[in-house]
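User: quick one, sequence for these tokens?
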């Protein structure tokens, strides 16, 4: 990793892309639009936004009304939700602004649920049905078991093209999605067995934090966890080469850190991974970047913070998505810098890139109800 931490790699790669002459005519940050945002985004407005129940990163276990016997099982459920949501979203990118991406539209059409609701339901069903989250269960789960557990069809009956009153079976439009879920679970189970975590993702998280989790610094724990997530679980290492630059966003891995911190740090000091707003907890801390999907760049475009040029159209759809996400990460970093320079919040409240991205995400989804994907 060239001596850089995962978060440093996100910042440096996103800023390097924006500074590249190759994409200069594709997207730029318009700093003149930032000052009005900082003037209107008071600490009270931001606090009200982040208190919304539709936050971009609610603790995953708060969304799972399940009873667990151990902390390890609870961790496994939380991380598995984020792993599946990340794997399906990142491996099937869609046009910016399309709610829940390609799979979300199909899921709502054929299953009546959005992407994260499907994932959450499936993880709950895995636990309730006894499939569980152990490495062997994940490795061995079949397509038919995923279809049954997640309540998603893989085939459908359609009229025979020439024989009246006769139907034939054909692959359902959701079959590729179910296959992707199956493949992600199988891949994860094999990885967990290979690295010696037979009990599943909860054991993986505990091992990543380290046996000295309580005595080590928050910064050390967070970096260990991020390194483990992106090096061992491919779904969390979202890296795309654009204009010769390996651009890292690490949205899912950062959401895991945020979720674990929010969900468990009050009861277990080893999960104190990020700075407490009161500033009373011991540091040093890792400061996450903006956590961006395809909604945040669209909001920043609407606010005039990002400006696209004709050059953007010369890139593939996937490259355009990454360029806009990288621009959003860099823009949120610049907004925080300008806020600090201008004395935003009179120094009483700390403005962070992560909080900004959560606020912008909510601005882009005012009609959405329920948890974020």
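Assistant:
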């Amino acid at each position: 990793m060239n001596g850089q931490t995962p978060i440093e790699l996100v910042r440096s790669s996103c800023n390097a892309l924006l500074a590249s002459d190759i994409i200069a005519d594709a997207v730029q940050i318009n700093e003149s639009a930032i000052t009005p945002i900082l003037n209107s985004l008071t600490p009270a407005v931001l606090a009200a936004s982040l208190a919304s129940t539709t936050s971009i990163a609610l603790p995953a276990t708060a969304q799972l009304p399940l009873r667990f016997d151990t902390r390890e099982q609870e961790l496994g459920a939380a991380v598995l939700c984020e792993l599946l949501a990340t794997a399906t979203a990142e491996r099937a990118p869609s046009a910016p602004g399309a709610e829940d991406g390609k799979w979300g539209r199909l899921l709502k059409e054929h299953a009546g649920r959005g992407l994260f609701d499907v994932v959450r339901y499936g993880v709950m069903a895995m636990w309730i049905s006894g499939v569980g989250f152990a490495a062997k269960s994940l490795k061995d789960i079949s397509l038919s078991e995923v279809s049954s557990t997640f309540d998603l069809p893989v085939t459908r009956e359609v009229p025979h093209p020439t024989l009246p009153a006769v139907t034939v079976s054909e692959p359902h439009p959701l079959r590729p999605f179910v296959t992707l879920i199956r493949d992600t679970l199988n891949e994860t189970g094999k990885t967990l067995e290979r690295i010696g975590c037979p009990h599943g993702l909860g054991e993986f998280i505990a091992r990543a934090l380290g046996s000295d989790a309580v005595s080590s610094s928050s910064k050390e724990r967070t970096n260990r966890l991020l390194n483990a997530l992106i090096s061992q679980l491919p779904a969390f290492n979202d890296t795309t080469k654009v204009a010769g630059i390996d651009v890292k966003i690490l949205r899912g891995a950062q959401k895991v850190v945020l979720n674990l911190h929010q969900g468990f740090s009050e009861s277990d000091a080893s999960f104190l991974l990020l700075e407490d707003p009161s500033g009373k907890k011991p540091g040093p801390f890792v400061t996450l970047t903006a956590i961006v999907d395809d909604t945040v760049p669209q909001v920043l475009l609407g606010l005039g913070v990002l400006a696209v040029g004709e050059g953007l159209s010369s890139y593939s759809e996937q490259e355009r998505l990454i360029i806009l996400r990288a621009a959003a990460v860099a823009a949120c970093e610049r907004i925080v810098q300008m806020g600090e320079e201008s004395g935003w919040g009179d120094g009483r409240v700390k403005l962070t890139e992560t909080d900004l991205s959560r606020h912008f995400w909510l601005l882009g989804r005012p009609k959405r109800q329920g948890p974020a994907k």
